[in-house]
Amino acid sequence: MAAIYSLFIINKSGGLIYYKDYGSAGRMDTNDSLRLASLWHSMHAISQQLSPTVGCTGIDLLRADTFDLHCFQSLTGTKFFAICEPGAPYMELLLKGIYELYTDYVLKNPFYEMEMPIRCELFELNLSQAVQKDRVALLAR
């Protein structure tokens, strides 16, 4: 059983630029993943405005009975969020690692246009390795 079910990357304007399904039970089609990304972007923005805490950066973790949704927002406004098993450890570190892969293999790619969907083989390859390493570390516990 995988720790991570799905991974989404949303640009600063709320557009889905990357989606990867890691074998979740209820697979989503393209329209569902676009709707979920748009909904999460809106909820994240609203939570920043409605928070009673000064300097709130939005929702970092949403817990449900059957899944957890972890979110990491970069300084540029790009959001990385993962739907994973409830109580999956170290998801914040994994999302920060994915952000590093994004900066190394996507943003430094001279053929990538900002805010556009990600189509980069090196990013895909290194992302697969990072997620697989996370799964192996989880099984070792």
Automatic annotation (TrEMBL):
Subunit note: Part of the multisubunit transport protein particle (TRAPP) complex.
One BP term from GO: endoplasmic reticulum to Golgi vesicle-mediated transport
Protein name: Trafficking protein particle complex subunit
Major location category of this protein: endoplasmic reticulum
PANTHER family reported in the protein's UniProt record: TRAFFICKING PROTEIN PARTICLE COMPLEX SUBUNIT (PTHR23249), TRAFFICKING PROTEIN PARTICLE COMPLEX SUBUNIT 4 (PTHR23249:SF15)
Entry GO CC: endoplasmic reticulum; Golgi apparatus; TRAPP complex
Locations listed in the record: Endoplasmic reticulum; Golgi apparatus, cis-Golgi network; Golgi apparatus
Key words of the record: Endoplasmic reticulum, ER-Golgi transport, Golgi apparatus, Transport
